[in-house]
Amino acid sequence: MSTLTIHNPANGELIIALPADDAESVAAKAAAARTAQPLWAARHLNERLACIARFRAGVVRDLEQLATTMTRETGKPIRMSRNELNGLLPRIDFFLGETPQALGAETVHDEGGMREQIQHEPLGVIANISAWNYPWFVGCNVVLPALLAGNAVLYKPSEYATLTGLEIARLLHEAGVPRDVMTVLVGGGEVGRALLEQPVDGVFFTGSYATGQRIAETVGKRFVKLQLELGGKDPTYVCEDADPQAAAESLADGAMYNTGQSCCSVERIYVHEKIHDAFVEAFVKTVRGMQRGDPMNEETYIGALTRGPQLEVLQRQVEDAVRQGAKLLAGNATPLAGPGNWFEPAVLVDVHHGMELMREESFGPVIGIQQVADDEEAIKLMNDTRYGLTAGVYTPDEARARRLLARVHAGSVYWNCCDRVSPRLPWSGVGDSGVGLTLSKYGIQAFTRPKAWHLRSPA
Ligand code: NAD
């Protein structure tokens, strides 16, 4: 049997070597899920809701241990690990409160003895292949509504967040979800590929564009539901009437939180020329004040990068930008010395769209700030991307923000805020940021098939 070794990205130390899945075990788990799913779906919704409520209690009870596990395997600063787990609780509450209504049968017509109804049936057995950067959020955005809707879940957490994936399953099993209804598959891309060989009824993927494209090619031939939540190159425009200090502090956090490894991290900033210099000064000062160090330290804001290979991407982007005339006002192109994956937060100005830094996802603590002359130039640059996850505008003028944001191609738009996800709103991307959605009532219905009922009562 093969093994998956898990290392601490902050110091390179081996945490554990786990037995990994292979094609045979994946097939056996998928078959067991197929058998178990109808019984789970036949249970009353209240029983499934009670399981998820008990799961929530388990998260609260074990929060400190879960945060430590996540920090050790991902390098996420411990305060942010706690924030993620605490932020999960209102998401669970949303699912618990919203699901009965979202899944309730709807009578859409009732006249002359003829009734028409929509009923939400579970898809069946679904595959969830996931990312590591917010493993509780991205895992639970799929797993919880899928289970509540009566599906069985084959969950392949990222190889960089497997211990967290196993904890999610442990707590669900302790809460009463049958083992074969919630199954974890351990391993990397090859286990994800083996999972896609199975006759699943839906594939829900969170990860990079490159992997998403491969998955779409594989799954596209079979007519099953496919959702892809992919990366972004999220822009923000700071207008001349914005407060440069407040905008800089907010956007520095949006760019650097979780060491820049958020799908909705601010990745490009456009600033009106009238306040550009004041904004940049405040931004650089804020970034310089961010404490980098041991992710287990309570004061740490910048932790280790989870994936070593990303260091090369960041170095390449910064070097390319500097070669083309960008000025590096904070940080460095070269990664810091190991052990572990460390990169000093980098702030670049005098950037343009000929640079990879302004076109391709950085997914790290690196940001380009570009000066613009007016709203038209800002909109043109914001839309000059193949991605479209989020975008924002900072201005005190709501009408102006609405006018601008209506013209930006993105799944979510922000006025005077950034890097924000709400369980009440749909989370989706346009263009190469993906297809489908999670969260909101639509992100619960996403795990169902709406069945049409035509019912004629006898005369
Ligand atoms: P990744 O694409 O490298 O890996 C994602 C998952 O796919 C992992 O579990 C991996 O093992 C698996 N995988 C790899 N190759 C596979 C294959 N051929 N077949 C099946 N599965 C395969 O992405 P990552 O590094 O884990 O995550 C970072 C990316 O995720 C970033 O681009 C980020 O923007 C994106 N992301 C998007 C969202 C969103 O909501 N849109 C949320 C979080 C992360």
UniProtKB/TrEMBL annotation:
InterPro entries: Ald_DH/histidinol_DH, Ald_DH_C, Ald_DH_CS_GLU, Ald_DH_N, Aldehyde_DH_dom
Keyword entries, A-Z: Oxidoreductase
Span of domain Aldehyde dehydrogenase: 3-452
Gene Ontology MF terms in the entry: oxidoreductase activity, acting on the aldehyde or oxo group of donors, NAD or NADP as acceptor
Active site (catalytic residues): E229
UniProt-listed PANTHER family: ALDEHYDE DEHYDROGENASE-RELATED
Family: Belongs to the aldehyde dehydrogenase family.
Name assigned to this protein: Aldehyde dehydrogenase family protein
Organism, scientific name: Ramlibacter agri
